[in-house]
Amino acid sequence: MFLFFRRTTAALRIFPSPFLPPARLLSALPANLSPPEKPNSVTTQPLTKPQLTTLVLAQYHHGKFSNLLQNIISSPSVLLTACHNLIHGGPNSPAPPSINSISSNFFSITDMSEEICQNRFDFNSCLLKMANKGEPISLALPNLKLKVLIESIRMVLEVIYDDRFATFSYGGRVGMGRHTAIRYLKNTVENPSWWFTVSFNNKTQFGIENTNKLCLIIEEKIKDEMFIDIIKRLIMSKIISLDLGGCYLGKGLPQECGLNSILINIYLNPFDQRLQELRLHINKKTPESRLIEEDETNHVFHKPLKIYAVRYLDEILVITSGSKGLTMNLKKQVVQFLDKNLCLEIDRGKTVIHSAVSEEITFLGMDLRAVTPSVLHPPMSEKAIRAKKKYLRQKEVRLQELKNRRETNRKKLAMKIFTHVYKKLKTSNGFKFDFKIEKQIREIFDTWARETVDEFLNSIEERAPVYRNLSGGEFLSLKRIRDQLPEELIQSYNNFQEKVDKYLNPIKAREKLLDIKMKQEQEEEQKYTERTVKDLTQLLIKVDAPEKSIKKSVKLAGFTNDMGRPRPITLLTALEDIDIIKWYAGIGKRWLNYYSCSRNFKFVKTIVSYHLRFSCLLTLAEKHESSKREAIRHYTKDLRVFDVDGSEEFWFPSEREIKMMGDKNLVDPKPVDGVLSMVLIRLAFDEGLYRCGAHFCERFDTIVYRIRLLDRGLNLDEKCWVFDRMCVVLCKDHVSEMYVGELTLQDVDYSSLICI
Fold this sequence. Notes:
single chain; alpha+beta; 4 domains; five-stranded mixed beta sheet; elongated
């Protein structure tokens, strides 16, 4: 997250918040000013995932789930579990608060449970209506109490629907994130011919007709009017904004509610099922991919018609391996189903068919293109082959030098041993030792003998003369001589000749080497043939990070100048050294995590390892009025800093760590878009009058920061401008997590925002 913290010396003036009712201001005051809560005498523990699943499945009767609100969501254990899910746990985070701690410091879970069970929950008192100056209400946000209710609803819906979603539905699901979708495209999709993405008209809002349709879809599985009415009220009050085609889904922005992802998946689930039916219908009509062999010289490859689909929340990608006519017909059915059955307006100007081979398509912030397998797994070039042969020759030379050096050392050591033994034998009758060394000497000579024999047997030139001497001109091979000798001697001679022929015959050794060489050549020819056939008959998907967009983002953020070279950011010089490094580290790690599955990941590594690293060093140098060399000498290229105890800390990934990164992990990283639009400026006001604004954080050693939006034209709705010049209160740990991008404004209690 792009965070700027600057200490200001302006006079402190506190005004009442224009969107907070007086009762909600108590959450921002010290604990001794809040009204006392009655203690909860019942010991309530949070639920595990299997326990929650068991509770929800117990409400399944006659094909539907019923009484979810009164029996499940209103349970204090479920509400406490939702509270713990909202807490962003770090490595040094304290234990999650108990139900008594939450009831005494925030709100009473027992009272909330009774209100939900008796249908007395007051939505209006939990709404935070935010607006720009001189403008009507433009954004409605939930307070912490309503967030707990929303999270408990999400938990129940996840248990009911997660196993019922299609396999190509990604986003808002455990283990089904962006990287999993990209991995599916790279490993599963074969021979794509045409593809298209479905673009929704973002000017059309999710209206009453869409809300009623969503409620009808939910009623197919859930028979609970109170439960569905709560979801409907959340949508109508704009707390849940399901405007498809927007720019904020899955990015951690504050206007995204916790229910957005799963409700979008539920709403688009009929579309997923319809698309799955079309895929199965095409697969049944088309035979499997096979190799028809009419005779030994004629091979006919058959490519079946296939449909692939990937949906990440409101982003839909459909791929076909058939003709353009099939793709046009499929696109027509997709658009008609979304338009008529789901009442969604499609942007037909952007929903167009592209050639998978000749045109790139953008999906999930990546550039996709169909290429041959040799592009993804290229063979060794002639230059690489020459370099490999040169390396092998150098390796042989080094081994020969090592062998000669070892033989020289052995000769010297042997001469010393024999000289010493000879002198001892001349001057005395024998050797007297206090310890036995026969075993060690025997092991040394055994090793030498074994190595000598191995070297002799591996050398054809040394074996040839010995073989000629032992196998040629022997009188024992004559029949008249053999008849006069004992049978045992003849048998021993035959065995000896067999061993000589087996181990010393150079002709067989040469034939064996030729066989090995021929096998290697045949394997190379076979690999070349298979590679050529695959290039002619197979296409795979190449996933690239958008280089132009990344370069533009780096330039707009101020990391580089017009020439593309790193430059300092003067606005950051007001921060502490460790905060500057954390700020850069948060941006770099987000970019590395997001684009780690791309083919040109090396380009992103260069951006982070060079541009961001040296921009950070130049910023530190400008702050301390020193040169870049002095900054590198002090902080090193790994940006080393020292904590209070004097131990080293490394927040920015080192060059070696970046070099070793790859697409090993399957994660769902948040993009950096939402962070680029926000700046936090630290106020010169360090008195701990306010509780930390992070979810259920009870610390009062906090610092006040002012939120400033950098660019209001950064593809964001005007209603999110209401956060401009608002103040957020955070403790030391959560500020650090905000710097490194692990915490977003979505993890902050909006009722703790103040106007100063």
